[in-house]
Specification:
Helices cover 9% and strands 42% of the residues. It has 327 residues and is mostly beta strands.
Length: 327
């Protein structure tokens, strides 16, 4: 009997120790903090915040004045507006978007798309000539197909190539989605969307044959803080397009995101550590593009600030800044 009691006591002791160990272990376990929740209310929503973003659209009930009865929205022509969540973060980070929930019906004209970069009025940042991936690789569309059974929820994750990305959506009748966003360090930034007022932005090719760009979606005053581009090391030239230089820093502006054929303010090459003159770009989009042949390790630092009315005497490029209405 004593043996049985001793055995029971030993079992109880082990059980108590196990429970006690559990209570001791819990405080050391990593507990992921809850993500901040952001409701999406604007069709064009620009943000630099992390967390969860959710959108929901319900089908309204429309009253017909003639008969005084209610009809379902399905009998009304749907509005096919394309909206977007525009993400932008620090120059040395990329955007990671995880799709946690999607209720967007393909058959009703609903569609979502992740864009590696920004799109506006059919124009893209970065441009095709500046981006390492093709446009087909940069845009991925998805929606819910109600014909598939059993129903499989959409689970997708995307990462951008630069500090800007876009989640587009078209929900004509009803639907919802939830996406989680975080920003990850980018060891080799190339294309940069100016997210705000920074002391300066750096563009460098790390000896690679590629284009790198800095884009500000506002009229901007730009100046070269320092430059080391191309073969020339005994000074700097602001007219390198006429010199037909393979490596150069083009500064200019355009009315939209597509800066492929931007109006040129200057074309810089050479080496200098002295602050260059301010160039006011009065355009909807202001761009600096570092063009590199791969023969040199090019680097440039650019200061950017918002152009104001008193900067008009500094204007080097004037664009027609009347924007077309977004479709």
């Amino acid at each position: 009997m004593k043996g049985v009691f001793a055995l029971c006591f030993h079992v109880m002791l082990l059980s108590f120790q196990a429970k006690a160990w559990q209570t001791v272990r819990n405080p050391f376990e990593f507990i992921k903090p809850p993500e901040k929740i952001h409701p999406v209310t604007d069709c064009m929503h620009v943000t630099s915040e992390e967390g969860e973003f959710f959108f929901k659209k319900t089908a309204p009930i429309v009253a017909t004045p003639k008969h005084g009865r209610l009809i379902d929205i399905l009998s009304v022509a749907p509005v096919m507006d394309v909206c977007g969540l525009y993400f932008v973060t620090d120059p040395d980070k990329i955007v990671e978007v995880s799709v946690k929930h999607v209720d967007v019906n393909c058959d009703l004209g609903g569609l979502m798309a992740f864009v590696d970069g920004w799109e506006l009025n059919g124009m893209y940042f970065p441009t095709e000539q500046d981006h390492p991936r093709s446009m087909e690789q940069r845009v991925e569309e998805f929606c819910n197909d109600p014909k598939l059974w059993p129903f499989k929820p959409v689970r997708k994750a995307f990462r951008s190539s630069q500090n800007a990305a876009l989640m587009q959506y078209r929900i004509p009748i009803s639907g919802s989605f939830v996406v989680s966003v975080r920003y990850i360090r980018n060891p080799d930034p190339c294309n940069v969307m100016a997210e705000g007022v920074a002391p300066f932005y750096t563009l460098e090719n790390h000896g690679k044959r590629r284009n790198c760009s800095l884009t500000a979606v506002f009229p901007a005053v730009m100046s070269v803080v320092s430059v080391d581009v191309g073969e020339r090391k005994d000074g700097v030239s602001y007219d390198c397009d006429r010199l037909d230089a393979a490596d150069k820093l083009d500064i200019g502006g355009s009315t939209g995101l597509d800066s492929t054929h931007m109006d040129l303010s200057s074309s810089v090459c050479g080496k200098s550590g002295e602050l260059g003159p301010e160039q006011a770009i009065f355009c909807g989009t202001s761009t600096v593009r570092l063009i590199s042949s791969g023969r040199y390790a090019n680097q440039a630092r650019i200061a950017v600030r918002l152009a104001e009315e008193n900067d008009i005497p500094l204007a080097t490029v004037l664009c027609d800044m009347r924007r077309k209405k977004r479709k």
